[in-house]
Amino acid sequence: MKMGGREALFTLFALGLACPAHADECSQAKAIYADEAGGYQLSFEPVGSEAAVTSNHFKISINGTGLLLDGVVMASGEPERPNGIVMHNCPTGDVTGAELAACTVWQGPIYTVDSAGKVGLLQGEDAPAAEKVLLPSFAPSLRASSAWGEDKAQSDSSDVFEFMGCAE
Predict the structure, then answer these.
(1) Which residues contact 101 (CB under 8 A, 6 or more apart)?
(2) How far apart (Å, rounded) are the C-alpha atoms in residues 33 and 166?
(3) What pLDDT does 54 receive?
(4) Where are the domains of the chain?
(5) Measured between alpha carbons, how far is 134 from 111 in angstroms, rounded to an integer?
């Protein structure tokens, strides 16, 4: 079901969110995005100085399920670029590689798209929010993950999330 403009604004205000007209009025750490159909919401959260490795933190909520996926962004690779990991019910503490692989929903580079269609890399939490965030192959990775199935995600997501507002 596609969410119209009025329904999207109502949802944002019901969640207690301020809604700047433009992404550049919001920092990336407070930006809120939705996929085209409105079934998935990606919300960034401030990391602060306590995180030495992570440059961004976000959550993906799936409407109507109560399911909340955790995401982190870390600079890695050659050349260095922002790489994200989305997880579902990962164990805490001393975990094995197999345990981490089992709870990983998606991982890969995170791109941004501006209003002119120019593709770039996700910036740090203090930068102005991107117009759109692109998680390449998120949708097929979600279908193949532990977050898909009965009482979990059952509707497809887009790989593109568009700016919807800014958390207070």
Answers:
(1) none
(2) 9
(3) 62
(4) 5-166
(5) 5
| pLDDT tens digits, 103-130 | 999 999 999 999 999 999 999 899 999 9
Structure tokens at 121: 């890399």
Q: Apex CA 74: angle with CA 132 and CA 110, to 5°?
A: 25
165 with 12: CB under 8 angstroms?
yes
DSSP 144: T
Our CA angle for 150, 12, 131, nearest 5°, is 95
- Rounded Cα gap, residues 75 and 94, in angstroms: 23
**Region of poorest pLDDT, from 52-56, 61-65, 98-102, 148-152:** 52-56
Whose structure tokens read 């407070």? 30
* Kind plus residue range of the DSSP H or E element containing 68: strand 67-76
pTM for the complete prediction?
0.81
In this predicted structure, the answer to whether residue 158 has a pLDDT above a threshold of 50 is yes
Q: For tokens 């750490």, what's the residue?
A: 29
Give the whole-angstrom CA distance, residue 131 versus residue 108.
19
Which residue stretches of the chain are H helix? 5-14, 97-103, 138-143
